[in-house]
Design goal:
Number of helices: 22
Oligomer: single chain
Strand content: under 5%
Order of helices and strands: HHHHHHHHHHHHHHHHHHHHHH
Largest sheet: none
Shape: globular
Number of strands: 0
Structural class: mainly alpha
Distance between the termini: 39 Å
Radius of gyration: 29 Å
Amino acid sequence: MLKKIIIILFTSIIFSQGSAQQKRAKDVDSLLRLSELSRYEDGIKSLRYAKKAYDISEESGDNTLIIKSTISLAYELYVLDNYKESLSQISNLEKKTTVDDNILKTKILEIKYVNYNVLGLDDLALDALNKYIEILEKIPTADAKQDLVKGYFYYAYRFEKDNNYKMANQYIDKALKIGRKVKLGEAMNTYIRKSYICMGLKQYDSAKVYMSKAFEEARIFENLTYRYVAYELQGYYYFNTKDYQKSIAAFQKTLSEIDSMKIEDIFCVISTSSKLADIYALLGNKKEEKNYRQQSEKYSDQLKEKKNDGLKETINSILHDQEKKNEKIETRNKWIIFLILFLTILGLSFYIIIKKTKQKKNAVLQQKEILLVEKSELERQRDDLNRKAEESQLAELIDLAKNNSPEFIVLFQEVYPNFIKNIKSINPKVSNSELHFYGLAFLNFSTKEIADFTFVTIAAVQLRKHRIRKKYNIPSDKDFNLWMQELDNF
């Protein structure tokens, strides 16, 4: 009897630990996604998300989660101009663990590159960038191609800054060539860079074409956070073509977008204000020239210094104010150790008592005990087989989804009958095509993944989700995939 109790106790502990680990992984992924989404809108909020993801990863002891969250944390620090702490995060990570995954290696190399580049460490920057591209050129996946575009983008930008527009053009064309095969996640920025390079080559007609593509990309995806860089490009285009009034309007729109969206791009504000001052100087408007010159100097000398002081203090608070939290963790760990020791001693005591009692029992009772143990073992084996069968079904279901197989919906209805029953109770006329789409969302595939699996555009998937939200009155602030998953328990 004791053996059965011990088996059940430890099986429950293992199961609860596994469930907790899965929840931590989901929590970390969600936090990292939130950090990425808020990266350029609210740098401090983005850093908080990344730090929280890192804390959960450390607590779980999952090496992959620790690597991912450290990379995110380092990148947020770079965006917040804390280059030393950003590089320190990567250095500490490499001291503590070995990174085997090639994609994660490239993420680390990218962080090294952008930091070294800002710090003017050209040899180290180029070494990191070359390794970054070398790894990605050998990986055939769509995600790797997206990252490779960034590598070519970085090279193009370096050559552009050195006024080597011919080489810059070669690398930005490599990025655009990939874009003809894979939908670019950085399409607008790539078009912007190409337009600047065309201006450097005095190819103003081509520059205008790619500028128009950048604005069209911003319009389609409503990428308001980044649209100001398209207006900045427009300002430079009209300046180079000597249409100064349109250039002024575009640069003023750049500053207006930055202000209205509360974007922290101090370098853009400084350069745009300075350029407006230059234009007004050419037009002989001394008053406006002085106004924008003062604005440029104000941001470069006073505001930026004040911003960095507050930023460093906030970052230091987020990263290093851990004493109270560490005390709580230490106390909790002591209680866990105490509980484990208590249960161990209690279990051993019961075992000794029951063992002595069993020696006094007759052969019938001993046989009964053996049968009970065997029954428990058979039940455990049965549960193991059921669990493996469920895992196999889920793996097969995911594989069918990725291959857009018509058998996907058949297996999905078999594995998740409760979900099917509940959705049909809401909409009895739901079609198999709709069920297929709902199944992909239920399995938590992203919009991009659904688009890839079903051979449609991301915009088409987003539109379909929008229509479904209206059809079922799904609140706009409710996660679409989570709503579908909750139907299983409706």
